[in-house]
Protein 1
Amino acid sequence: MGMERGHRFEVPFEQAFPAGLVLNGQVEPDNEFQENRNAPPRQKVDEATGLRRWKAVFSDPGYAKEAEASIKVIFLSDVQPVPTTEEFMPGCGMRPVVLEGLQVSPVVTGQDKFKRLGWMYFATGFAAAQSSPASSGKSARRGGESAASSAEAA
C-alpha cells in the first residue's frame, strides 16, 4: 500500500519559495461552513494534529501570472500566528514573511481536461525574516502550482 491520502511532506521554505513570500492581509480563523448564517462560527480543527486551523493568502513574487502567484496557506496552531515583520508601508497589509514548519500535500486541481497536480500548503507559524530569499540568486519555481491548487479538496 502507498501513502495515505492527505500525506504531508516537509519542505524547506527556501526550496518552496525561492523568491520569498508576501502576506496579503491578515491571518484569519479557518471556519467551518454553516448553512445557518446566524449560528456562531466554528473553527476547523486539523484531523492529523488536533490543532486549530488558521488561513492566510500570500503572493509569490517569483510568478508573473496572477493565478499562479496567489497562494493559500493553512496554519496549524492553538493560537493565531502573528507575522514577525513590518509592512512595506504602514496600513497596506502587505509584508514579506518566512514560514516555519512548512509542509505540502499534493492535490488534483482544475476541471475536466485541465486537471493537474497542485499543492496545499501548511505551516506552524512565522519565522523572523533574516534576509530576503530573493537575494540568494535562485530562480527555480514550484512545478504545477496555480491558484486553484491552494483550494482544499472537498
Protein 2
Amino acid sequence: MTAHKTRPGPAPGLEKTATLDEVKLMPGDALQLQPLVEGPQERLTVRIIGVMKPKSVLVTAPMIDGKLIFVRDGQPFLVRAFSGLNVCAFKAKVLKAQHAPFPYLHLSYPETVQLMRIRKAVRARVQIIAALYDRAGGRQIGAGRIVDLSVGGARIQVPRGFPVPGEQVYLAFKIRLDDIEEIVETSAAMRSVADEDDEEGRPATALGVQFGELNPQQRLLIMNLVYQYLLKETD
C-alpha cells in the first residue's frame, strides 16, 4: 500500500492561491478596504453581512468617527481579512452602494484570493492600561501598559523600580471592540523580565506574561482586537 503524504500548509510568509469558499469568512468578520488609486489613502474597516456566491460579498458601509464615507459604484478596492492564521487579500469593486434599510455595499465576488500564513502566535502592538494584583481579588500592586498582545499572553511595561511579582500575577484590563466593552481578568505566569525604554524614551521594565485559562468570550474578544490592529498594520 502506498503511503499518502500530508500536504503541509503554507509556511509563514509564503503565499498560496485559494477560493473565497476556503477562507470561510463569517458574518461580523472585519474586512479592510484599501482604495486602488495613487497616493496615500485611508484604509476603511467594514464588516461582512453575508456572501452570495458567486455574485457578491455584502459588507457594511465604511464609517469614520461615526460619519458615513462616500463610496461610488464601480470603485475598486484591495480587500484584506484574517482567517485563522492566514491573512487573505483580493481585489473587488463596488457593484452597488445601498442606503436602505441601512447603508451597505455589494462587493464583487472574487475568482481567487491570496493567502499568506502569519506567525502561529498572532500578536499586535497595542496600548492598553492594565492593573496588576498580587492575587485574585487581592491588593493592587500597581498599573502598567500592555504594549504587545496575543491570545496567549502579553508584554507589559511598568515603571523602572516596579516591585516585580514572583512566579504569578493577576491582571485586569479593558477590551474595547466597536460597541463591545469588557473587563478581562486573568492570572498570568511570569515568563520574562527585562529593562527597556518606553516609546517616550523613559526607563521601564517589560514583563513577559502568559495568560491563564481564558473563557471563550475573552479569547474571542482578544483575538478580534489583535486582528483589528493587524489589519491597520498589514501592507
Protein 3
Amino acid sequence: MQSLRSLPRAASAARAFSTTTPRHLAKMQLIGRLADQPELMPTSTGRELIRYSLGVSSTQRDENGNRATSWFKVASFVEGAQRDLLLSLPKGTQLYVEAEAKMDTYQAQDGTNRTSLNLLQRNFEALARPRRDTESSTTGAESDANAAEEPLSGVGQS
C-alpha cells in the first residue's frame, strides 16, 4: 500500500471535494398524514405562511396493538400552484415532506425555558388522499393514521 507522501502532487490536489464553503445541514424527511387541512397565515413581514401538522406513525406496535404517532408542526412559504395544491389537501392526506430542521429555545409564559423543533418545508409530494368510508369503526386521529389510501396520480412535487 502506498502512503500519501509517495503519491505525485497532482493526485493529492485532485482530492479537493468542493470549492464552496461548508454549510451546516439539518434536514428531515417525513412520510405522514395531515392532522388537519393546512392553514394560510400572514407573517409580521407581510408574507403568507402555510402551517400544518403531520402525524407520523411508528412501524412498531405496543402491547395493545396500537402504533405510536409522532406529531410534527411544519411551515411552508411555497407559492403558486404548489401553494394552491397544499392548501386544498384534506385532513388525512398522506404526504412526503423534505424540510430544514432547527431547534429553537424560548421562554414560556410560566418562566421556564422550552425547546421546540421547527420544520421549514422545502419539498413535498402528496402520496395518497384518504378514502372516506362510512362504515369505519375507528375514530379520531387513529382513523386518520390508519385510513385506507386512495393513490394520487401525477400530483405534486415542489
Protein 4
Amino acid sequence: MNNVITYGTFDLFHVGHVRLLQRLRSLGDRLIVGCSTDEFNDIKGKKSVIRYNERAEILSSCKYVDLVIPETTWEQKCSDIQKHDVRIFAMGDDWVGKFDHLSAETGCIVTYVSRTSNISTTDIKGYLRKIDSDTIASMKNKIDHLRAQLEKY
C-alpha cells in the first residue's frame, strides 16, 4: 500500500484545503493527515478559529482523507512516517525545501504540491479582520455623527 502523509492546521476549512487534499490523495492509496493541535499551534505562534477536535472531525469527513492524527510537535514526523509505513511525505508548495531531510532520515519520497491560488486561511482571516475594522470605523462615524447631533440640542 502506498501511504501518503501530510500535516497542517486546516483552520476555516475551504475549497483550497479540499483541492490540496485531493491532489495529495492522488499520490497514493491512502492519505494520512496530521492536524496541528491547539497546543502545538500555540508553540508555532498560530491561533485557530476552530478548535482541534472540530478541525479533526472536518478532516475525517473529507472523502480524500483516510486517517487523521494529532500533530503535537515538529519532531514527530519521522516516527509517524515509520509507524504508518509512509512512502510519500507531501506538503503544499509554500513549504518547498523545509522537509527534504525526511527523505534521508526515513527513506520516504518528499514532494511538494501546488496550492489553490487566490485562497488561503490567512487571506480569509485578513478579510474578516478588515470587515471587523471597517465595521468598527463605520460605527465610530455613526456615534460621532450622533454626538454632533446631540450637541446641537
